[in-house]
Amino acid sequence: MRHKSDVDAFVNAWVAGNVRAERGLSDIPGEIDRLAAALTGAARAEGISGGELHRVLGDIDNYLTEQCQKAVAD
Fold first, then answer.
1. Exposed, middle or buried, 36 (CB in 10 Å: 0-12/13-18/19+)?
2. What's the start-to-end Cα distance of the chain, in Å?
3. CA distance 37 to 34
4. 38: which residues sit within 8 A by CB, 6+ positions away?
């Protein structure tokens, strides 16, 4: 099991490189699904389980929705 700070660091770096401000995106749920699958796959490649992501982030879809909203607001 990875330490929470390691998972946080991984997720923060992944979000910085993968979540973009997409104003007018017509398929928000589809984009969130795509991002969630990509994040989960990248985490697995680093040895981070879905359970560890959930422990740190809570619901991944909700987390990514918030991150997309922040990116648009910036």
1. middle
2. 34
3. 5
4. 18
Write down the pLDDT at residue 24: 60
- Please say whether the beta carbons of 7 and 52 come within 8 A: yes
Name the token pair of 28.
């928000």
- Domain ranges for the chain, please list them: 4-17+24-73
Q: How far is CA 17 from the centre of its chain?
A: 10
pLDDT digits (tens, 9 = 90+) for 20-33: 766 665 567 888 99
Q: What is the mean pLDDT of residues 33-52?
A: 96
